[in-house]
TrEMBL record:
Pfam families: Aldedh. The keyword Cell membrane does not apply. This is Aldehyde dehydrogenase. It comes from Streptomyces avermitilis (strain ATCC 31267 / DSM 46492 / JCM 5070 / NBRC 14893 / NCIMB 12804 / NRRL 8165 / MA-4680). InterPro entries: Ald_DH/histidinol_DH, Ald_DH_C, Ald_DH_N, Aldehyde_DH_dom. PANTHER family: ALDEHYDE DEHYDROGENASE-RELATED. Belongs to the aldehyde dehydrogenase family. GO terms for molecular function: oxidoreductase activity, acting on the aldehyde or oxo group of donors, NAD or NADP as acceptor. Signal peptide: none annotated.
Length: 499
């Protein structure tokens, strides 16, 4: 879920009053100071709608509204907060089709992805955090001997999770429903208030999420949404003194800049950044399973996903078969209109991002990689399409192997033995999710434990949505998903008393 550099946004325009999206600040729909900018359909290049351009003052006003709302919301019983989230999930479920149509128009997702993995997962995450979990954990009593602090005593203790305060949520363009929901829902469940800064390419869906929350009865100021085509709104949402925490999904480079600002203000951070997932395919692996799993890089969000297994390490005995089967798999994937029933690979988010991905493929050629399939622009009349591309005979020093491309491009490298495979996998600056395919389950788990990644899939690219999610190294800071997200959006307080 790592967005690249946004495309060149259109200049502010003045749409008709009925078409103009407004900011959501303090429970009110507010006209933007900076006018509006066009949101473009990546498949048709038509205008989807006009997103509001928030000024720095308006972003700070949103944070001030969240600060004012925090005291009452944080004291609201957890059951009541959960009920609001549950009602919001129901609103999303009822409006799944129109919400998905908008998400598809903004992001270029296929129909199945927009309905199931975007709006469907977004609603599911709100339902998940409508379940109340204990915020207190008893700690075993401790016997303290007599000393300078007083007589001997048995000391009881309780660890209590308290909300952090005002949380800025900066979300990615590849999933305008699941990603914001994964931040907003647990943050609200813990008693925080939020300022949401959606990705500039597809912000309109996040405003529909705000409408669902408003319909569900969220109090004014608890949720605020501000958008912008450039860096101004995001920067204001990070450096504002009213903000206590920043939750960011995006590129490592932007994450580093956010971390610097947060460091100056001692703001808490949750960072889900880039990835260059390694898929180790051993000689005894089920190659059909490995190829279909790795092939999701070509199809799922057109490769615009940080968890994708984009760096394939194939043991030498099966290297040629892996390359041949991946190439055949990629060639079979229908590329085109994401609204068409048979389409598997839709467009990437923008013309600028398409150019970036294509430049990486050309760079791979110059570095000596062999383009087995893809590498050309599909013959589509409109839209920002990239053909599923397989690069073979790669080496670890190539930039196409080391850097996140964020598109339907897979690089394949050979390795000889288990030690070399682990060494190659760990040679990356990233460490989000890696994968191991082997019929020897003992070896697969042994290798998994030695990989420097926040998650490892053994013979699968599937996810357990209660398992912690986050990265090692330059792939991020902190963990979310399931109960771990509640931990991420809370501060831990100790209460101690004499027994």
């Amino acid at each position: 879920m790592t967005p690249g550099t946004p495309g060149n946004p259109a200049a502010p325009v003045t749409p008709g009053a009925s078409d103009a999206q407004r900011l959501f600040i303090g429970g009110e729909w507010v006209a933007p100071d900076g006018g509006h900018y066009e949101v473009i359909d990546p498949a048709t290049e038509a205008v989807v709608g006009w997103a509001p351009e928030a000024s720095r003052d308006q972003v700070h006003a949103a944070a001030a509204a969240a600060r004012e709302a925090f005291a009452a919301w944080s004291r609201t019983p957890a059951e009541e907060r959960a009920a609001v989230l549950g009602r919001a999930a129901e609103v999303m479920r009822r409006n799944l089709v129109p919400y998905a149509e908008l998400a598809q128009a903004e992001s270029g997702a296929t129909t199945g992805t927009a309905r199931g993995m975007q709006v469907g997962v977004g609603a599911a995450r709100f339902r998940r955090y409508a379940r109340v979990e204990p915020a207190e954990e008893p700690i075993a009593p401790q016997i303290n001997e007599a000393g300078p602090f007083g007589r001997a005593a048995v000391m009881g203790a309780l660890a209590v999770r308290q909300p952090v305060g005002v949380v800025t949520c900066i979300t990615s363009y590849n999933n305008p429903w699941a990603n914001p929901a994964g931040k907003i829902a647990p943050a609200l469940a813990m008693g925080n208030t939020v300022v949401v800064k959606p990705a500039p390419q597809d912000p309109l869906s996040v405003y529909r999420m705000a409408e669902a929350l408003q319909a569900a009865g969220v109090p004014p100021g608890v949720v605020n949404v501000v958008s912008g085509s450039g860096a101004q709104a995001g920067e204001a949402a990070v450096d504002c003194p009213d903000v206590d925490m920043v939750s960011f999904t995006g590129s490592t480079a932007v994450g580093q800049r956010i971390a610097e600002v947060c460091g100056r203000g001692m703001k808490r951070q949750l960072m889900e950044l880039g990835g260059k997932g390694a898929a180790l395919v051993f000689e005894d692996a089920d190659l059909a399973s490995a190829v279909s799993g790795i092939g999701t890089t070509f199809s799922f969000y057109s490769g615009q996903i940080c968890t994708a297994p984009t760096r394939v390490l194939a043991q030498r005995g099966v290297y040629d078969r892996v390359v041949d089967q991946l190439a055949a798999y990629a060639r079979r994937l229908p590329v085109g209109d994401p609204r068409a029933p048979g389409t598997v690979v839709g467009p990437v988010i923008s013309a600028a991002h398409r150019d970036r991905v294509e430049s990486y493929v050309e760079l791979g050629r110059k570095e000596g990689a062999r383009v087995v399939t893809g590498g050309e622009r599909p013959p589509c009349a409109t839209g920002f399409y990239v053909a599923p591309t397989l690069l073979a005979d790669c080496t670890t020093d190539m930039r196409v192997v080391r850097e996140e491309i964020f598109g339907p491009v897979v690089a394949v490298l050979p390795f000889d033995d288990e030690e070399e495979g682990i060494e190659l996998a760990n040679s990356s600056d990233y460490g989000l999710i890696d994968y191991v395919w082997s019929a020897d389950v003992a070896r697969a788990f042994r290798v998994a434990r030695r990989l420097r990644a926040g998650g490892v899939g053994v013979n699968t690219v599937g996810r357990n949505m209660e398992a912690p999610f986050g990265g090692f190294k330059r792939s991020g800071v902190g963990r979310d998903v399931g109960s771990y997200a509640l931990h991420a959006y809370s501060e831990l307080q100790a209460i101690v008393w004499p027994g």
